[in-house]
Amino acid sequence: MKKTITVFAALAVCATAATAQDLPQPVKARQGQFNILALNLGVLGGMAKGAVPYDAEAAQAAADNIVAITSLNQAAMWPEGTDSMSIDGTRAQPVIWEKMDDFHSKWEDLGAAATEMASAAGTGQQALGPMLGKVGGACKACHDTYRAPE
Q1: Count of beta carbons in the 10 Å neighbourhood of residue 17
Q2: What keywords is this UniProt entry annotated with (predicted)?
Q3: Would you identify the CATH topology of the domain 2-146?
Q4: Neighbours of 69 (CB within 10 A)
């Protein structure tokens, strides 16, 4: 199962790179990390809903992947001039660069929620829902202010 998750993560990164050839490298990198987050959250969400059989090893691997992504230092991925008003292909609102400390704080909050989820993901399906709620809340807290709608 770990190999399957790794293959899907690699495919997500490749798909992002293939569709975003004209974007600056920092934008490609941050979009890739968000695709990997989405992939792993999907694995956990499927298990939490019962749409996919719970697998403790796969749940733990997905949660650990989320922790790894949220542990990345974000500084190099958010240079000025890579917002949605400056270039096409990103949903990053210009307000990010006006409130960078708050933006980074929200990323740290996501990391804390991910770490908490990782401590419970392998313990059973019943643990996933509440933990995913916390991670989703951390995502929403940032998206509400810093991500443009589709």
Answers
A1: 16
A2: Electron transport, Heme, Iron, Metal-binding, Signal, Transport
A3: Four Helix Bundle (Hemerythrin (Met), subunit A) (1.20.120)
A4: 19
Contact 20, 1 (CB under 8 A): no
The reported pTM is 0.84
53-107 pLDDT per residue, tens: 999 999 999 999 999 999 999 999 999 999 999 999 999 999 999 999 999 999 9
Phi-psi region of 149 (alpha: psi -120 to 50; beta: other; left: phi over 0): beta
The annotation status of 104 as a binding-site residue, yes or no, is no
Secondary structure element (H or E) that encloses residue 16, with its range: helix 2-19
User: What is the residue whose two structure tokens read 């740290």?
Assistant: 108
